[in-house]
Amino acid sequence: MDFTFLGTSAGSPTRSRNVTGLALSHAGTKPWYLVDCGEGTQHQLLHTRYSVMQLRAIFITHIHGDHTFGLPGLLTSASMLGRTEPLDIIAPPQVQHLIHAVIENSDSTLNYPLNFIDSEAADFHWHDEHLDVSSVALSHRVPCRAYVFTERWVERQLLHNRLQDDGIAPGPVWGELKNGCDVLLDDGRLLKSDHYTEIPRQPRRMIVAGDNDTPALLATAGKDSHLLIHEATYSQEVADRVGPWPQHSSAEQVARFAESAGLPNLVLTHFSSRYRSEPGSTPHINLLAAEAMQHYKGRLFLARDFDAYRLEKDFSLTRLNDH
Amino acid sequence: MDFTFLGTSAGSPTRSRNVTGLALSHAGTKPWYLVDCGEGTQHQLLHTRYSVMQLRAIFITHIHGDHTFGLPGLLTSASMLGRTEPLDIIAPPQVQHLIHAVIENSDSTLNYPLNFIDSEAADFHWHDEHLDVSSVALSHRVPCRAYVFTERWVERQLLHNRLQDDGIAPGPVWGELKNGCDVLLDDGRLLKSDHYTEIPRQPRRMIVAGDNDTPALLATAGKDSHLLIHEATYSQEVADRVGPWPQHSSAEQVARFAESAGLPNLVLTHFSSRYRSEPGSTPHINLLAAEAMQHYKGRLFLARDFDAYRLEKDFSLTRLNDH
């Protein structure tokens, strides 16, 4: 499972960080999925291998502008590029109103259907052939969701000993069994895929959370997950000074939660624009990493725009590019 | 009069060109004016000296998304930065609907008033202490305007001979007269500013046009103007192939018009994304310059993102930066 950060700044863009967007795919870049779509997301995509032509679905965590204002431009550009494939938009109902109002008041047309799915519906669940997606309600100034992406299909492995013991020779039958199909032989024997194969590992599962001041809401989902991507807008000291109103998390809060949930991988993102990345500048973004590391012993990253990661089949997390 | 291109691409952004936006000021960067606001305009501004805190007014030529989709982000970011000054938005009425719908459906608030002014009103006229702004109706798929910016105040020059002849010694009186104020002397004489000063030149005037397939609509405005900024979406050959529907201009069309109107300076912008700037790439953007030069003998530029220009007091046009 691959993903690339398209924006890692909270609220407003900075010179080096755009507002929130995450491109995610099961393998390669076709199809792919977008989580949140701040202004300039279509611009960021031009510098990646992801194309709006192969975008399968957009998941919006909540209605704030730094997570949604890129939608009108991305959707109309896809139409100008010739897209005709339907597109699922999983979002709170206001996002549908916003898109309709913008299209209506800008003389825009979309030459493909939008399929709106209410992310706030009690029975929300989405899937395609690659991924199952469920959601968890978070705590923010407006209704907000974390999306839990679980791979739908884990390749079976043949149990060679059993096949040999039963005299089943290598050939097309092995391929069928590996694909999960039962096979009826000419001699009348029915070979059950479940008997001759095993599923060698759990499906990979990752949580992409929206804005949230209560990481513990992810306790249940976190138990079976291999990765959490969560906002860490401030350090604990700044969070204390800012007060509870913005309803964001500190690096410490998220780190403590990830540690208690036993999550092996944690990527922090959505940083206040006060934090700087240039060497010697202050407050430096590495403060947030230092704070998180005091409370979390797993594999930790601070996201940067255009950082690409892979959640491997052994559940380790690898950064694919290096700045 | 200074201006910086924030975007020079038609329809969609490219890797090196954003969609339309132009920052303009009378002197320095405080206050300044924005003409059109495509998606990502606030991002582009972060790389210039213009700040949303000193933005006086936004002029929108027409409602298409590549000229308007940056408004919600720019306006809400200005609020987050602490802006409290009112902001004029000169635009077709749909832009007001768009902004209200987006704010309402994204839990946004603006901590300063927006002052909407209908750009399509028959008696449209705007001014502040620096600039007079009128408009000209263009021809495009939707109602579209060119804005004509005229400097409001040209510094008077003292007529030293007359002052000496009348025995008026250098001092504060000279300053008053230079500022256009009449002065009553202790001896009872009334000195008329108009008598002791002259206005040494015409006010500078520049036209910033929106999308338009009929440059000749600018014939009257062009007569007294020193600069035209106009779209040249295609070469004539591509325009012929694309057909009339998009209602854009070719480089040739605009060049012929500017030549016939006697305009001394012409900057072309809003180029189709098919044109490339990298050396050796094709079709190269310089095709458009070559085409325009065949029909226009004045000073010609093709705009690039972040190019800054100055219309000097002698009506010459200077590019301030060089890539």
TrEMBL record, chains A, B:
Gene Ontology MF: a single term: 3'-tRNA processing endoribonuclease activity
Catalytic machinery residues: D66
Entry note: cofactor: Binds 2 Zn(2+) ions.
Reactions catalysed according to its record: Endonucleolytic cleavage of RNA, removing extra 3' nucleotides from tRNA precursor, generating 3' termini of tRNAs. A 3'-hydroxy group is left at the tRNA terminus and a 5'-phosphoryl group is left at the trailer molecule
Binding site for Zn(2+) 2: D66, H67, D211, H270
Pfam families linked to this entry: Anti-Pycsar_Apyc1
InterPro entries reported in the protein's UniProt record: RibonucZ/Hydroxyglut_hydro (IPR036866), RNase_Z/BN (IPR013471)
First and last residue of the signal peptide: none
Co-factor(s): Zn(2+)
Keywords, alphabetical: Endonuclease, Hydrolase, Metal-binding, Nuclease, tRNA processing, Zinc
The organism's place on the tree of life at top rank: Bacteria
Record's subunit section: Homodimer.
PANTHER family according to UniProt: ZINC PHOSPHODIESTERASE ELAC PROTEIN 1 (PTHR46018:SF2)
Protein name listed in UniProt: Ribonuclease Z
UniProt source species: Marinobacter zhejiangensis
